[in-house]
Amino acid sequence: MGMSTDMGIGSSSSNNNNNNNDDDGWIEHELIKPRSIEKRGYQISIASVARQKNTLVVLPTGLGKTTIALLLIADTLKHGGRALFLAPTRVLVHQHYNFLKEHILHDGIAVLTGNTPRHERMEVWSSASVVCSTPQVTLNDIERGFIDAGDFALLVFDEAHRAVGDYSYGRIASLLANASSSTGAGVRIIGFTATLPDDKEKVLEIASNLMIERIEVRDESSPDVRPYIKDTKIEFVTITLTPVMRRIREHVERALQSRLEELKRLGVISSTRVNMSNLIDARESISGIKGSTVPLYSAIRLSHALKVLDTQGITAFTRFYERLREKGGIGVRSLVEDRELRSAYELARGAELSGLEHPKLSRLVEILRREGFSPDEGYYSVSSSNSNSNNNSNYRRGKVLIFTSYRDSVEVITSRLIAEGFKVGYLIGKAGEYGLKQEEQVEAVNRFRAGEYSILVATSVGEEGLDIAECNLVIFYDNVPSAIRFVQRKGRTGRRMPGKVIVLVAKDTIDEAYHWISRKKVRQVRSIASIVNRIIANRTGNNKDYSSSNGKSSDISSSDDGASYGNNIYHSSTNLTNLDDFIK
């Protein structure tokens, strides 16, 4: 069956909500636990659009994407339909399952992962009203015939930006849509992501793979979101490399330059001013160019070595070289024996043994102390002017989340902060024999939430979806050339209390280049949704205009002005005739 046109959502007043807006209160719905879900107008507006069209919801971390999913699932259950909620990892699947179990008054909610025995999966697929699962398990079970693909009225994709290439989200959407179409029932498809890719073609691919008819976007500047967030200050701290790091860098650059000149001579590249992406793309064009494979792969590895040195530091660089030496591969022996690269490694190894590291590390410690975080107790000062005070009344418990892209840096940062007396935990993914299993990741997050340690050092696994406690301070130890990752990192603070983001930038390095790239891409995303919405509307023949939530007509124009982002791109449902049916 398809989605209904009446969600049956109302509100009850509450004196506990300190947001002075017209949406104070709690969601009232016969299948939602009373006084458990705060009523927010933007969530209901998005849900009302998503109930009528296949919708891609773009909402930054911490603003309640899962709550919107819950509203749609409750609506589906109320009208006798079944819902399938997919997330890319077991940790996220269990997180969504627990959230739904906590707030929805219905016994038919189940969870499936690769650890669930086959006979149990078959039982769940045939009987549960709401299934939370991973895409891998779902696709495998569809192909095995365990699932009646036409039996779901609602299909929810978390982290929908993954729906590109051969990722299984697109295949699942197609199978369920075709099956439900053949029965005449129809399935409503909803995708959630913190932000869009900065590439219009990728956004179009996501929209095509998930059969999206509408993109709904909100950010911190959207008028209906602004009452629910607190100020987030962003500080950029520029750091200069030490003399020894500059010497190491010069050796690596000379090794890289010699490979680039060889590739230019062979006609693989037209200029030696290239980046990593250019080199990776060049792999497709070297077929038949004799002698090009070794210098190309060596150039890629040297570019990566330079990135590791610039963004992470000396220890990460030495470990990269040592792993390369042990691993082998195309041209590896000649590369590790290269005079310039060996000189770089020997300099770095000597510096490491002397206790030298990236200057970011010592600056990180300075920042934590400057911001008033107390190493021994995990407290921070209410105001920076009190940071040196011994008066405990000036302190309250606080949390810091430090993001870095590499596990080696997680180890270096964690060890240094522990040595300085801070209470620190870490969160990394699982790859092969190394890293944290998903159960251990959940334990690390829970200990951080419970206050067993005040600082959590995390790789990208901490960026995507995990329900990490809101933090007072988020620190970018490195920069990533990605709008998605920038928004995900930033969204870990400034939701229910004022927050701060500090971005460390190594001057005149790849780290600084990535910093500017990410900021540019975030601005570009603001116009891409508008452009793609127009393309989708033209393709589907649906050019209906919607009103923005402030009552002004939206022309769906593109804009790089952050202040007008919400007005120009998203379209709320305040002009829909049935809105009064579920907002009192």
UniProtKB/TrEMBL annotation:
Q: Which GO terms describe its molecular function?
A: ATP binding; catalytic activity, acting on DNA; helicase activity; hydrolase activity; nucleic acid binding
Which stretches are tagged as biased composition: Low complexity? Answer: 11-20
InterPro entries in the cross-refs = DEAD/DEAH_box_helicase_dom (IPR011545), Hef_ID (IPR041755), Helicase_ATP-bd (IPR014001), Helicase_C-like (IPR001650), P-loop_NTPase (IPR027417)
Region Disordered: start-end pairs: 1-26
Q: Which UniProt keywords apply?
A: ATP-binding, Helicase, Hydrolase, Nucleotide-binding
From which domain of life does this come?
Archaea
* Domain Helicase C-terminal, residue spans: 360-547
Please give the PROSITE patterns that the UniProt record associates with this protein: HELICASE_ATP_BIND_1, HELICASE_CTER
The name of this protein is ERCC4-like helicase
**Organism of derivation:** Candidatus Nitrosocaldus cavascurensis
